[in-house]
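Late entry, S-adenosylmethionine complex.
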Amino acid sequence: MFHDISADMLKVMRALEEQLERDQASLRSVTQDVGRCLSLLALSAPPGAFLELGSSGGYSSLWLSLAARAKGVKLTTVDLNEKKVALARENVARAGAADSVQVFHGDAFDFATRFEEIAFCFSDIEPPELNAKIYEIIVPRLVPGGWIVVDNVTSPRYQKDLLERAHSDPRVDCVRLPFPKGDLICRKC
Ligand SMILES: C[S@@+](CC[C@H](N)C(=O)[O-])C[C@H]1O[C@@H](n2cnc3c(N)ncnc32)[C@H](O)[C@@H]1O
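Prediction complete; structure with ligand written out below:
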């Protein structure tokens, strides 16, 4: 999957990585390692919907598109900010991933309730504590073996709220991965 990424997609990915290096604040994309991890987890997901909440410029969407294409599913990604939606659409198109990614303008809380059989969800909205609310909407909708991944779980508030909640939640098995911002990955039992 990672050995045959098209030249067009690599070019868009590199441009977004360089933009992140120059300016951490504007797109707030995940790192390349997180993107690769998302893609591998999504590839291992059972049949069902692929969802991303918080597209920004589409960097994580591109990594997820690799798994979506390999599995013959279409990733639904949504962002509240119209400019980010336009940018993500442009990047997805330039990367040649429009066949496996649909970028929507809308609210994550609306889109999270639109699917009942979710195989994979990446929740990356802001402020980060909102992802704890998304967790409660998504977990009941995950198919057995499905994944929810939550980015940016290093804040003390997360330690108390979401991490404790997920660790004691009998519906999922979870672990926090020590990426720079911390990523919580949970698999539905
Ligand atoms: C950290 S960025 C996402 C980065 C992206 N996942 C990536 O790695 O390339 C968070 C995004 O969430 C969006 N956002 C914040 N609240 C939202 C909501 N309620 N619904 C949808 N998007 C939201 C912001 O506009 C912002 O683009």
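The first strand starts at residue 49 and ends at 53. Will revisit in the morning.
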